[in-house]
Write a structure and sequence with these properties.
The structure holds 2 protein chains of 2 kinds. Chain A is an alpha/beta fold. Chain A is 41% helix and 22% strand. In chain A, the strands form 3 sheets. Chain A has a 5-stranded parallel beta sheet with strand order 2-1-3-4-5, with helices on both faces. Chain A has a 4-stranded antiparallel beta sheet with strand order 6-7-8-9, with helices on one face. In chain A, helix 4 links the parallel strand 4 and strand 5. In chain A, helix 2 packs parallel to helix 3, helix 6 packs across helix 8 and helix 7 crosses helix 8. The longest helix of chain A has 15 residues. Chain B is an alpha+beta fold. The radius of gyration of chain B is 51 Å and the shape is rod-shaped. Classes of the chains: A alpha/beta, B alpha+beta.
């Protein structure tokens, strides 16, 4: 499978270098230099993953991310130089699936991209239930009482991961590994933000979650069905 | 003041109370503690009165009864005491109330004094005139009566004479309606008969006061104020003027008393005192109102200033006082506002400075990181392809790769440090099991440790060591400690321990490497500090690891401490409160490692570090803190007392 990667970055050298690395990995890169043009480029190229720099001249990455997310579920990986919690959380809350902090190692970046691409390959017929939700895994749909809920692929993966082993408590690091494809460097903020977003979509009362339950000091688990 | 008086009462009553009283006095300086001591003194408030009373009659047999009495009193007085206490609080707090009350009390005293003087003057004036007139009248009467007696026929019956005489006098009085007459006949033989004669003949002879009866002498006129009693039971104020008349033949005495009615004068005086009272009350009330009004003029701006100051202190820097007029209060308001403005400007400047610095760090971060990313990736591509290069170029690619790692780490650490310096570091708190976190760190460090030959032993407790921390930062701290131990562990065993108790959780890392020389324990957390400048770093440390670790731990309000001895290795301990941002009081892991405590002392328990005073294994004097063989330790969290005997270096935060 040849993944189509859209790189949105204003730094020419970095974009070119990313192109070299991605091509070496057998991926197909497309480039876009400004935030304004990003959305049109997404429509035009229909990428499998978007690499989005947060600091863009004109329209910044967060805004672009919101725009893309508004009309597409394409996985978005943010490239950021900021590691402050506020910046990271802001980026994730705007709809990004993952983020990579500059300077990153090419292998690390590729691993993340592959993790985002991987989910398209799974196609075993499987139906899971978690709480009062019914998950059709190959069909990528979640329904409550027959009404479909709109989840991004990442949120879907997170829910499926929890639902497959409802008896198990998942640590944040474990989820990072399973859902995001991380191996060592663990940033649990990623998990926290996405769990919050998932809850806001699937829980009846996100303040008192019933489906994705926090286990204090350990992590999360699926609620009783 | 109150408490002092009360306190003294108790002092006398009970020696226990002396201590309590002293305590209260010690507690007094600040208003809050004063209030607190007031609270503590709640129960005794009434006891004082009882205590004082009981001192006066402190008989042992009454003790039991007194206790019962006390209890009853306490119950009966409880609501009253509460009210009194509330009033006292109001009194202490309200300047307004104090000034108005003071004015009321003082003006009442002055008014009463003035009223009394006035009343006295007027009554003296009124009565004196009446007395003079009455005495003159009576004297004339006495003279006439004496003449009548002397001119009377010698053969006459004295009693008839007196009757005659009395009737004469009474007739005169009746004509004027001014007085009534009482006559005592005192025969020479002794005894006396009292005859009352008056126009209405209703006056009782007891109207004449006894001392006047005893005091009358012939030829002298005496008077007394008295109460004239009428037969009808009515009484009226009056003046009794009396004199003794001698009947020359029988040598009998005739004591004649004139009773002048003073009702009119009494009425005048009554009216006067009523008026004075009314005027006095009116004056006091008016003065109170005036004081209330005047104080309000002063107190209102002061209260406003207080409110504004409180709001300023709460961070509302835009608050200002309104300035009216040019008086002292207006100037106070002006100065206050100036102060607030200056304060605001200073704070804004500091905020701006901090913001600029933060912005700068953020910008530098981005500006440096983007090209570095490109370089990094380019180097990686070169590194991957190095097999196809000539040996020199391949080595160059390797060096480039390795040094880029170092450069990256250094840049990351520098930015982290500047974030701390700019106070831009924020905590992202969650409940974390420190055992899991430590296990993860140790597992990821094992390859490095294996390369250096140091086995890592992980000692964990059964119970979860859950603490509210920023896991990213705490993981970094533990990683720094572990990597540091591997770096200086000389390939010997490293022990990583996690322990917790009720309030705190701790992670410690013990190595058996080169240890720390005297004085070094205080330096290990310094930026870019190296134990031995000649020694090269082999694990790629930046020299900022422990400094960042210390900042991270301090951000959590915890301790990061070091202990070390040359040749005995080093021990680093992080202690965190399990509840976020609280200062730990003790650590579940002793700073001086257990394995060094010998001499039959029991191993240290989780209660703390006091047992660190065991004999040093090298037998060196424990008191030496800077001797050549003295063990070294650094405390960064203010816990130094436990280490003094082992030569700890206390670094207060």
């Amino acid at each position: 499978m040849k993944g189509r990667i859209l790189v949105v970055d204003d730094d020419h050298a970095l974009a070119e270098m990313l192109g070299i690395v991605l091509r070496n990995e057998g991926l197909e890169p497309f480039f876009c230099e400004s935030g304004e043009a990003a959305l049109a480029k997404v429509r035009e190229t229909k990428p499998d993953v978007v690499l989005l720099d947060v600091m863009l001249p004109g329209k910044d990455g967060i805004e672009v991310c919101r725009e893309i997310r508004a009309e597409s579920d394409v996985p978005i990986v943010m490239l950021t130089a900021k590691t402050d919690t506020v910046d990271v959380v802001l980026g994730l809350e705007s709809g990004a699936d993952d983020y990579v902090v500059k300077p990153f190692k090419p292998k690390e970046l590729v691993a993340r991209i592959r993790a985002r691409l991987r989910r398209a390959d799974q196609a075993t017929p499987e139906t899971l239930t978690i709480g009062d939700l019914v998950i059709d895994v190959p069909g990528h749909s979640v329904k409550r009482d027959g009404v479909p809920l709109a989840l991004t692929p990442l949120e879907f993966d997170l829910l499926v991961c929890l639902a497959r082993k409802p008896w198990q408590v998942f640590g944040r690091e474990e989820l990072l590994e399973q859902v995001w494809g991380y191996r060592h460097s663990a940033d649990t903020r990623l998990v926290n933000v996405h769990v919050q977003r998932l809850r806001s979509k699937i829980e009846k009362d996100p303040e008192h979650p019933q489906i994705v339950v926090t286990v204090r000091g350990v992590g999360y688990k699926a609620g009783p069905p | 003041m109150w408490s002092r008086i009360r306190g003294l009462g108790r002092t006398a009553a009970n020696p226990l109370h002396v201590a309590q009283w002293r305590f209260m006095r010690i507690q007094r300086p600040s208003p809050t503690s004063w209030r607190r001591s007031e609270q503590q003194g709640r129960q005794p408030a009434w006891q004082l009165a009882v205590g004082t009373l009981s001192t006066l009659s402190a008989w042992p047999r009454r003790l039991v009864r007194r206790r019962v009495l006390r209890r009853l009193l306490r119950r009966a007085l409880a609501p009253g005491i509460r009210l009194v206490r509330r009033l006292i609080t109001l009194w202490r707090r309200s300047l307004h109330l104090r000034v108005v009350t003071g004015t009321l009390v003082l003006s009442a005293v002055v008014t009463v004094f003035v009223g009394l003087v006035l009343l006295r003057q007027v009554s003296m004036g009124v009565l004196e005139a009446k007395v003079q007139a009455s005495v003159a009248e009576a004297s004339a009467g006495f003279r006439t009566a004496q003449q009548t007696i002397e001119a009377a026929e010698p053969a006459g019956d004295p009693s008839e004479l007196t009757t005659q005489l009395a009737e004469d006098i009474a007739l005169r009085g009746a004509m004027g309606g001014l007085y009534e007459v009482v006559i005592d006949v005192v025969p020479a033989a002794g005894g006396s008969t009292s005859v009352a004669r008056s126009t209405r003949t209703t006056v009782l002879t007891t109207s004449v006061p006894d001392d006047l009866r005893e005091g009358v002498r012939p030829g002298k006129v005496a008077y007394r104020y008295t109460l004239i009693r009428h037969e009808s039971g009515k009484t009226s104020p009056g003046l009794a003027v009396g004199s003794a008349l001698r009947e020359p033949r029988s040598n009998a005495m005739l004591n004649v008393y004139y009773l002048f009615d003073l009702t009119q004068q009494q009425q005048i005086l009554n009216l006067l005192s009523r008026s004075l009272l009314a005027v006095g009350v009116l004056i006091v009330v008016l003065l109170g109102c005036v004081a209330w009004f005047v104080t309000r003029q002063v107190v209102t701006p002061v209260r406003m200033a207080r409110r504004v100051a409180e709001r300023l202190a709460a961070g509302l820097l835009d608050q200002r006082m309104t300035v009216q007029g040019q008086d002292d209060l207006a100037r106070l308001a002006t100065s206050f506002n100036q102060m607030a403005t200056n304060l605001q400007r200073q704070i804004r400047q500091l905020e701006e400075l901090s913001r600029v610095q933060r912005r700068f760090v953020s910008d530098v971060s981005h500006e440096l990181r983007t090209p570095l990313t490109t370089v990094r990736m380019a180097a990686d591509v070169l590194h991957e392809a190095r097999d196809g290069f000539s040996p020199e170029v391949a080595r160059a690619a390797e060096l480039l790769q390795n040094e880029l790692d170092r450069f990256e780490a250094l840049l990351g650490d520098l930015l982290e440090i500047s974030r701390f310096d700019a106070k831009a570091a924020a905590l992202d708190l969650e409940d974390v099991d420190l055992r899991e976190l430590t296990r993860r760190v140790v597992d990821s460090a094992r390859p490095l440790a294996a390369r250096k030959g140091s086995p890592i032993e992980l000692v964990l407790e059964e119970t979860p060591a859950i603490a509210e921390v920023d896991s990213r930062r705490i993981e970094r701290v533990v990683r720094n400690l572990v990597v540091n131990a591997i770096e200086y562990g000389e390939g010997r065993e490293i022990i990583v321990r996690v322990a917790s108790d009720q309030d705190t959780a701790a992670v410690s890392v013990r190595d058996h490497g080169i240890g720390l020389k005297p004085g070094e324990a205080a330096l290990v957390f310094n930026r870019f500090w190296r134990a031995d400048p000649a020694r090269t770093r082999t694990t790629g440390g930046t020299g900022l690891g422990l400094a960042i670790a210390l900042e991270d731990v301090h951000l959590h309000g915890g301790w990061l401490q070091a202990w070390g001895e040359p040749g005995k290795g080093a021990h680093f301990r992080m202690t965190l409160s399990r509840k976020a941002l609280q200062l730990p009081q003790q650590s579940p892991i002793p700073l001086v490692p257990d394995d060094l405590v010998t001499g039959g002392l029991p191993p240290q328990d989780s209660a703390g570090d006091t047992s660190a005073a065991g004999p040093a294994p090298d037998g060196s004097a424990h008191e030496t803190s800077a001797g050549p063989v003295a063990p070294q330790a650094l405390t960064s969290g203010g816990e130094s007392a436990d280490l003094t005997s082992r030569g700890a270096v206390g670094g207060a935060r």
